[in-house]
Design brief:
alpha/beta, Rossmann fold, twelve-stranded mixed beta sheet, signal, TAG_lipase, Lipase domain-containing protein, Lipase, secreted
C-alpha cells in the first residue's frame, strides 16, 4: 500500500503584475476529478475554497495533493497534465493543481507574497480537513511558494503531512516529511534540499532522451514523479550514497536502508540517495543497484 500523501490537485491561478500586495483576488484553486481520460474541473477562490468539502467528488478521507508548478508553466504543458491524469488514473486521490494566466507573475522574488495568499485560502479548509492527509507538491519556483505556505501555516498551528520539491529553487522543512527530487543542477542549492534528497541519474543534465535543452532534464523530474504515481508498487529504488561517481562504481551497494524516489518515499529516510533509470520509458529499472 502506498504511503498516502494525498492528492486533490489545487491549481492556483494569479493575474496581474507582481506588486507588494495581497494576491487574494487574483488567486484560484482548481479541483480536478473524474476520469483520467475526461478530467473535470471545479474552481474556487480564496474565500470559497473550504467549500470544496461539499463537492460530491471530494473524498473526505482521501490523501489530498496541492500542486504548484514552476514559472513559465501552465496546466496545458504536457508533463503537468501527465501528473494530473496520473493521479486521476489511480482514483484513490483527491487531486488539485496550481495554474496561472500570466506566468510572468511567478518568480522566486514573489514567492512569499504568493504564499501569503495561498495560505489564507487553505487555512479555513485545513481547519476542517485533516492536514495529515495533505501533500504539498511543488515544481521549481512552485516548491518555493509551497515551502513558504507550509511555513506560514505551521506558524498558525497547521502542519501538513508532506512537502515535495521537484528541482526546487527553495525548500524548507515545515512539513512532517520533506523530500526533494533533482534531475537538473541549475536550480540546485545544497542549503535547500529535503530531509531526504533523490538525485536521479546523478541529478544533472542531460537526463535520458535529453540533449542540448536543459529544460528537458528539468522536466524529467515530473516524468519520474508521474510514473511513480501510476505504479502499484515502489518502482524507483535508490541507495544512500555521497556521490554519483561512488554510486556508479558500486561503492554504495552495501549501504542501507534502500529508499524509493517518488510517491513511495518513506518518511523515515534522511540524507542523499542516488538512482539510475532506464534510457526510455518505463523509466523505472526496479533495482537500486547501478547497471550498464
Amino acid at each position: 500500500m502506498k504511503p498516502f500523501f494525498g492528492v486533490f490537485v489545487i491549481f492556483v491561478a494569479f493575474f496581474g503584475a507582481v506588486r507588494c500586495q495581497s494576491f487574494d483576488d487574483q488567486l484560484m484553486f482548481e479541483q480536478f476529478y473524474g476520469s483520467a481520460f475526461d478530467p473535470q474541473m471545479q474552481i474556487y477562490d480564496v474565500r470559497s475554497f473550504q467549500n470544496i468539502i461539499n463537492h460530491p467528488h471530494f473524498k473526505m478521507n482521501a490523501p489530498t495533493v496541492i500542486f504548484h508548478f514552476d514559472e513559465f508553466e501552465t496546466n496545458r504543458d504536457q508533463h503537468i497534465a501527465e501528473i494530473i491524469t496520473s493521479y486521476l488514473y489511480m482514483e484513490e486521490y483527491n487531486m488539485i493543481l496550481v495554474d496561472y494566466q500570466d506566468v510572468n507573475i511567478i518568480s522566486d522574488s514573489a514567492a512569499y507574497d504568493l504564499a501569503q495568499s495561498v495560505s489564507r485560502g487553505l487555512e479555513g479548509f485545513l481547519r476542517i480537513f485533516n492536514p495529515q492527509l495533505v501533500h504539498f507538491l511543488g515544481n521549481g519556483v512552485g516548491a518555493n511558494v509551497m515551502s513558504h505556505t507550509a511555513e506560514i501555516l505551521r506558524s498558525n498551528g497547521i502542519t501538513v503531512s508532506r512537502l515535495t520539491g521537484l528541482n526546487p529553487s527553495r525548500i524548507s522543512h515545515h512539513a512532517t516529511f520533506v523530500d526533494s527530487i533533482h534531475t537538473e543542477e541549475s536550480n540546485f542549492n545544497p542549503n535547500f534540499v529535503g530531509q531526504v534528497s533523490f538525485f536521479i541519474n546523478g541529478g544533472t543534465h542531460p537526463q535520458p532522451r535529453c540533449t542540448g535543452i536543459v529544460s528537458c532534464s528539468r522536466d524529467f523530474g515530473k516524468r519520474v514523479w508521474a510514473e511513480s504515481v501510476r505504479s502499484e508498487i515502489p518502482n524507483f529504488p535508490a541507495l544512500p550514497c555521497s556521490s554519483w561517481i561512488d554510486f556508479m562504481n558500486g561503492e554504495c551497494n552495501q549501504n542501507e536502508p534502500i529508499g524509493n524516489a517518488g510517491i513511495f518515499a518513506h518518511s523515515s529516510l534522511r540524507g542523499s540517495y542516488f538512482l539510475q533509470t532506464n534510457t526510455r520509458e518505463p523509466w523505472s529499472r526496479l533495482t537500486a543497484f547501478p547497471g550498464t
